[in-house]
Amino acid sequence: LALNVRLHQAITNDELDVHYQPIVDLKTGQIVAAEALMRWTDRELGFISPAEFIPLAEKNGLIHRLGDIVLQQACRQAAQWQALAPLAIAINFSSVQFRQCEQLQQRVLQVLAEVGLPPDRLEMEVTESIFIEQDTCLINTLNHLKSVGVQLSIDDFGTGYSALSYLQRFSFSKLKIDRSFIQGMTNNVADRSLVNAMLAMAKSLDLKVVAEGIEEQPQADYLNLLGCEYGQGYLFSRPLSAAEFTQLLQSQTLQI
Ligand code: G
Ligand code: G
Ligand code: NA
């Protein structure tokens, strides 16, 4: 069967799952957020990476349904976690999802209300590429969601389209530095300079920074020293199932 037929079946048969990766405060080590990451294991093909099926879903339009599944599942989970910690849920949104911007806006508000998650506990992660097209509907949607308290983050910062003017026009709350810079940082002077520059720029724009792909303690120490607030990566935890993440949260809560 072709992959897009399988993906269609996976949606119908409820075979998609969401995993969660902690985002931690680099100063205290506390988990402040969870990034929702979609997972698909096909019965015959086994694990299929989102790096493979998300682009496919963007092409064939299934991304709208996939996005809705993640939105519902992750927000419901995050609402439950509020009893353990005041955690935010970071969800990735494809630029294609914003082509149905009115429906998207409506669904986000509807899901938040349904599951009882305060809007400021949702962080929508978007990449720079959504700003390539100057679309009024997109801009209105982002502004409206922002006005009700939803947080906006820029994902994979530094890797894509980079006309920085969009940073001024929207009040983003977080900037996520792409892991390629973080991984090069410890032995590449150019990468280290870029990370420094991104942190300085973020500070002047009053944006908090998440460093992605932290794998080693020296990276975390150095980023903390430079004033980077948050970190994410295998050093802290790989993406976990909902049950595993709940256990991690419980053990953290007990330590306080
Ligand atoms: O989860 P990693 O584990 O392999 O994810 C690979 C890529 O797929 C990343 O760029 C990630 O942002 C993207 N991705 C994972 N889950 C989602 C999702 O729910 N929606 C969108 N749009 N992208 C996702
Ligand atoms: O930013 P984006 O949504 O593209 O990032 C999520 C992707 O990064 C997922 O594929 C996730 O599994 C991966 N990831 C998370 N932490 C690390 C890490 O420490 N190292 C590497 N190589 N990948 C990571
Ligand atoms: Na992301």
From TrEMBL:
Domain annotation EAL: ranges: 1-253
Name assigned to this protein: Bifunctional diguanylate cyclase/phosphodiesterase
Interval of the full protein contained in this chain: 518 to 773 of 774
